[in-house]
Structures are given as C-alpha cells and as structure tokens.
Amino acid sequence: MEHQGSTGPAEYVIIGFPGSEPIAAIAPELGRLVDDGLIRIVDLIVVRKDPDGELSVVEFDEHEDATVFSAIEGEVGGVIGGEDIAHAAETIAPGWSILLVVWEGIWAQRLAEAIRASGGVLLEGARIPDHLYDDVATVLADSEGRGRTPG
Length: 151
Prior knowledge:
By secondary structure, the chain is of the alpha+beta class. The chain is built from 4 helices and 4 strands. It has one domain.
C-alpha cells in the first residue's frame, strides 16, 4: 500500500526475544499489517546481546535474511538513533534480542486528522507490557460478562 500523504499517529515498540533470531518469526505478521493498510513501517532495528554481553545492531536492510522484509515498502530507516538503541539495550539479558519498530498507525489517520483539526495534540501514549496484560484481560472479560454498561 502506498502512503497517502496524511499522517496517522506514530509509535514505537520494543519486543524482546530469547535467542538471536526473532525477526523471521514475526516478519510475516508485520508484512500482513503493512499489506492490510493498518501500519506503515518507519524504522526497524534488531539489537542482539550475545552470551558474553556484546551488543550487535542490525538495520532491517542489512539483515542476513532480507527476504523477510519484502512486504515493507517505501523508505524505512533513520528514525531510531543511538540514544534509542542504548535505552532499549539496557533491557536485554545476555542471549536475548530485541526488535525496535517505529510504525505509523494508518488505521488511525482519520482520528489523527480530527485531533489536529480541532487544535488537539497527542501528548503521550504507551503500550501495556505483557506482564501487566493479564489485568487488562481480566477487566475485558468482566466487562463482556456484564455487558458494556458503565459502572
């Protein structure tokens, strides 16, 4: 899908994986999100920490299996900088890898346009990490059991 010029909200995620090769497992799903017009990948970097604690950084177009990125169209890169990588690398245990992804939420372009047109700005957002998601799932299950009534 070609980028339309309007801009949806952009966000980043840091995803951790045991081992050194996370990308092949999730690249097809990222590709589907791109193909379905839900997101546009802005930048993507893999950071690995070997068992001795040595870091290596791999840009998406330098990845040894670049075919996993065939669904990513357009210009990708240049957004994630050294400070971002250093911050994310603090979370990596030896023998683990992380995937840093910045994407534009094309699915929310019209909402972003409405916010801007009203003079509003997005002040902050965050992803709920897996270790807290059980709490959210419980609330969602409870609300479905009660119906979606307030209170």
